[in-house]
TrEMBL record:
The chain crosses the membrane at residues 12-31, 62-82, 94-113, 125-146, 158-178, 198-219, 249-274, 315-335. It is a multi-pass membrane protein. The keyword Membrane applies. This is FecCD family ABC transporter permease. Keywords: Cell membrane, Membrane, Transmembrane, Transmembrane helix, Transport. Pfam families: FecCD. The keyword Amino-acid biosynthesis does not apply. Belongs to the binding-protein-dependent transport system permease family. FecCD subfamily. Its main location: membrane. It is found in: Cell membrane. It comes from Paenibacillus nicotianae.
Length: 341
């Protein structure tokens, strides 16, 4: 049976990776400037003589695609971890307040601070993501503090506190947005809807340290995550340092999500949909479900971004809106299935 599960996992991962490569190829060739596959390959291999091809691929399309891959993978894996730690299959990293906290800090930065400082160059480009990261981490920290009881982090209280804090932060964000001038309001609304329009290699580099350090650590905790599905009393009787391990895993997940959300804006439903699809395909074992959640998350974001970028061209629909259109019916379907069970 295990050999059959492993074979199913390998075949599913292979199909997922092939689909990602296919979407990447289509994304590099399709757009306002159409390129053939030969043009795309010769440009990637630096054998093209057309400078416009280099600009289109290396300055616009490739950074956007790489950023979508990284953010989709981190949201998918973090979503699987959050669902296991809260023991709630309908949980999403968004309930941890990261999206709302990042959004509030970025809007407040644009409204109160940006015009008061004189910064240019790469530092200016990274100011908004930096404030988003700070806001996301502080929001999650506040929710963690309020969700603790005598046994440490309470999964059920975490969800309730997260919903309450997210609602409060969203209200502050809306109020500040309405006080902005029209140009800033448009930029804030664009960020809050989640998009990769500003994608560049600097954003990609800013995400890499988080992914290189935190993602392998999470992938090495698959056995612990399997055990975390058990009840608290069972875990304590097995000698698992529940309070310490749950907090560590949650903070690592928060760091990954905050790194992505700070750059791309609020992107929902990936952390909900990807883990569900992964467990339905390869089972509950995290050594298989976690990597597959990352692959599915990356695939979802790439497809949504490609649809938003090309379907309504020359206008662009933010990837967050496309994912919401896809994710909302899926969420309703999950709720109906749980009610039937």
């Amino acid at each position: 049976m295990d050999n059959h599960s492993q074979a199913r996992y390998i075949s599913t991962m292979s199909i997922g990776i092939i689909l990602i490569l296919l979407i990447v190829g289509i994304g590099l060739t399709y757009g306002e400037l159409r390129l053939s596959w030969m043009d795309m390959m010769s440009t990637l291999l630096h054998r093209s003589n057309d400078s416009s091809h280099y600009i289109v691929i290396f300055q616009f399309r490739l950074p956007r695609i790489v950023l979508g891959l990284l953010i989709g993978a981190t949201l998918g894996i973090a979503g699987a971890v959050v669902q296991s730690l809260t023991r709630n299959p309908l949980a999403d990293p968004g309930i941890l307040g990261i999206n709302a906290g990042a959004g509030m800090f970025i809007v407040l930065f644009m409204f109160l601070i940006r015009d008061q400082i004189d910064i240019t160059g790469n530092v200016a480009i990274m100011m908004m993501p930096l404030f988003g990261m700070i806001g996301g981490l502080l929001a999650a920290l506040l929710i963690f503090l309020l969700a603790k009881d005598q046994n440490g982090l309470n999964p059920q209280r975490l969800i309730l506190v997260g919903i309450a804090i997210t609602t409060g932060f969203s209200a502050v964000t809306l109020y500040a947005s309405l006080k902005m001038n029209p140009q800033d309001f448009e930029k804030a609304a664009s960020w809050l809807s989640g998009n990769f329009n500003s994608a560049n290699w600097l954003f990609v580099l800013s995400m890499l340290p988080w992914i290189i350090v935190l993602l392998p650590w999470l992938l090495c905790q698959t056995r612990l995550l399997d055990v975390m599905r058990l009840g608290d009393h069972t875990l304590l009787s097995l000698g698992v340092p529940l309070r310490k391990k749950r907090s560590q895993l949650m903070f690592i997940s928060v760091g990954l999500v905050a790194a992505g959300v700070a750059i791309s804006g609020s992107i929902g439903f990936v952390g909900l949909i990807a883990p569900h699809m992964a467990t339905r395909l390869v089972g509950l074992a995290h050594r298989r479900a976690l990597p597959l959640s990352g692959v599915i998350g990356a695939l979802l974001v790439l497809i949504a971004d490609f649809i938003g970028r090309t379907l309504f061209s020359p206008a662009q629909l933010p990837v967050g809106i496309v994912l919401s259109i896809i994710g909302a019916p899926y969420f309703v379907w999950l709720l109906s299935r749980r009610r039937q069970v």
